[in-house]
């Protein structure tokens, strides 16, 4: 017993030393990484700022022309920027994806499918039934909600300010919008996975275990307001944003929601592996960026899969399912 106690006392300082060494290495790596990231962002933002400044006069002139055209009827400009433009981008992108899903054209796109063998082609009857909910949510909830928010947005800050936001302010706004969206979506989404709320509300969205682009709007109306709309609109309200920032953010939010549900890991687009895995397994990957999933440990199963290895920005044309294939299935 005395020998064991002595060895334990000797082992304890060694463990503390290893932990302390590990902490120092982690701090060094994180500190170095942060410095490199700041240097990289300063370099990139500097180049983009010069491009922004070069085109700034043109953008400012076009904005002032719009203000003079819609003078006294600025609400029309608001409808165009916050509803019509984002909706046009959403349906243009999803129109192309629906052709791929229903007609399987072009042929090469099937190589980028995440869940092989699913939606090849998509069930058209199921899609038609889902479209009713999608159009209802967009036309009867999203549009009225954005219109309802108009006086609130005007109170928070004049969205028609004559001067356009600077490039760095625009980037700051996008960062804040993204952070607010991540926090609100993660916690509202995870709450909807409570057994009671899941059965009554969220189960509808998970009818599609292999999602397609338009399914981002296939939700119960309560979920559409709580998880789809509020996380997106709250940022511009709190920041008192310019109409140009709001229009870009709403458009980006719709495109990113489409990409995360599209079912294809396409080149030069954000990876949809994270949210696609959520539709496949239900109890993993609740967020958008994955930051809160990492902090709360709701991505541990995902990190043990090949999907996690493929969860990266594809910079070439070789599908990641080919360069990082799933392990062969075991024979019974």
TrEMBL record:
Main location per UniProt? membrane
Cell compartments where the protein resides: Membrane
GO CC, sorted alphabetically, is:
cytoplasm; membrane
Q: Name one GO biological process term.
A: lipid biosynthetic process
Q: Which Pfam families match?
A: FA_hydroxylase (PF04116)
GO molecular function list = iron ion binding; oxidoreductase activity
UniProt keywords, alphabetically: Membrane, Transmembrane, Transmembrane helix
Q: Where are the transmembrane segments?
A: 75-100, 134-153, 168-187, 246-266
Against PANTHER family, the record matches this protein to: STEROL DESATURASE
What name appears for this protein in its UniProt entry?
A: Fatty acid hydroxylase domain containing 2
Q: Which organism is it from?
A: Panthera leo (Lion)
Organismal lineage: Eukaryota, Metazoa, Chordata, Craniata, Vertebrata
């Amino acid at each position: 017993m005395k020998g064991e106690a002595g060895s334990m006392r000797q082992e304890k300082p060694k463990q503390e030393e290893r932990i302390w060494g590990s902490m120092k290495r982690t701090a060094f790596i994180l500190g170095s990484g942060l410095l490199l990231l700041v240097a990289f962002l300063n370099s990139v933002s500097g180049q983009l700022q010069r491009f922004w400044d070069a085109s700034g006069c043109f953008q400012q002139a076009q904005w002032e022309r719009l203000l003079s055209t819609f003078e006294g009827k600025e609400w029309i400009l608001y409808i165009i920027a916050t509803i019509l433009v984002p909706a046009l981008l959403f349906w243009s992108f999803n129109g192309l994806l629906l052709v791929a899903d229903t007609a399987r054209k072009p042929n090469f796109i099937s190589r980028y499918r995440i869940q092989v063998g699913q939606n090849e082609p998509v069930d058209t009857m199921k899609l038609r039934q889902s479209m009713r909910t999608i159009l209802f949510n967009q036309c009867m909830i999203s549009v009225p909600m954005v219109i309802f928010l108009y006086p609130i947005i005007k109170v928070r800050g004049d969205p028609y300010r004559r001067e356009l936001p600077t490039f760095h302010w625009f980037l700051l706004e996008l960062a804040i919008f993204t952070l607010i969206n991540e926090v609100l979506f993660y916690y509202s989404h995870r709450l909807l996975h409570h057994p009671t709320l899941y059965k009554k509300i969220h189960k509808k969205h998970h009818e599609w275990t292999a999602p397609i682009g338009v399914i981002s709007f296939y939700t119960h109306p309560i979920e559409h307001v709580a998880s789809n709309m509020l996380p997106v609109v709250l940022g511009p309200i709190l920041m008192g944003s310019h109409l140009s920032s709001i229009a870009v953010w709403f458009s980006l939010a719709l495109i990113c929601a489409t990409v995360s549900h599209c079912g294809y890991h396409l080149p030069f687009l954000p990876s949809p592996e994270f949210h696609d895995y959520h539709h496949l397994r239900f109890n993993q990957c609740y967020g958008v960026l994955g930051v809160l999933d990492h902090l709360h440990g709701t991505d541990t199963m995902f990190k043990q899969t090949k999907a996690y290895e493929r969860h990266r920005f594809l910079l070439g044309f070789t599908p990641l399912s080919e360069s990082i294939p799933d392990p062969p299935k075991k024979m019974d």
